[in-house]
Amino acid sequence: MPQGNVAAWSSMISGYAMNSKVDVARKLFEVMPDKNEVTWTAMLTGYTRSGRINEAAELFKEMPVKPVAACNEMIMGFGLDGEVGKARLVFDQMREKDDGTWSTMIKIYERKGFELEVLALFSLMQTEGVRPSFPSVISVLSVCGSLASLDHGRQVHSQLVRSQFDIDIYVSSVLITMYIKCGDLVTAKRVFDRFSTRDIVMWNSIIAGYAQHGFGEKALEVFHDMFSSSIAPDEITFIGVLSACSYTGKVKEGLEIFESMKSKYQVDPKTEHYACMVDLLG
């Protein structure tokens, strides 16, 4: 193969590396006359995306310059391999970080169950004046809900308002879920009511939240409000509604709703729905 220029070689290496031909990519990499940051990062990414983290780590050590993109790949690679400590070491040694660096480290902590570390890292972001990215916000809200940490959740909510992420339907769905898990159904409903157009996740979250906390009547009210929207209930909706009927002792209404699943909404009852009916009729 003619030597060509660096961009052409880098493109070839990237193409092979990202199409499960990492060893072919490495052979090209070894004979390439000149390498730049893009070349090194492409080869490194091939290893990390193939799960060959040890080879990625060796290559990372050899890199004359470690660009942010390469460091982010190593953080993700180490994290997915369960080497969370090594991922954090790469993070801490970086002189410059971008949005992807912070969100990747936070996501790794969340996935591996390091929930307190997620909150600590998010706090560090605020201390350093880093504007949180969309993925970071989602991860932190999920952790706040899992820990039922209402104080942290409120702090994140305030950050959302400042960053104008609170106007996003998906973010608000996660925000509603967080407040519900923390037991603050009043604020959850307040967030829900801000939107004239709601997706199925928002409807399901508020219905299930009311049902799980023993507010069956309110869950049924929201379910009936759903009829005036263009959103059709799905199987998750019916789990929440049937649970609400069980909590409130509304046997007749529960039976009618159960019958309507298939006949009106073409939703096939699953094991969870039958379990709700057993509770309702028990």
TrEMBL record:
Ranges: PPR repeats: 5-35, 36-70, 98-132, 199-233, 234-264
Keyword annotations of the record: Repeat
GO biological process, any: RNA modification
Domain of life: Eukaryota
InterPro entries in alphabetical order: PPR_At4g14850-like_plant (IPR046960), PPR_rpt (IPR002885), TPR-like_helical_dom_sf (IPR011990)
A Pfam cross-reference name: PPR_2
Keyword Magnesium: no
Presence of keyword Flavoprotein: no
GO MF terms held by the record: RNA binding
Identification of the protein by name: Pentatricopeptide repeat-containing protein
Organism from which the protein derives: Populus alba
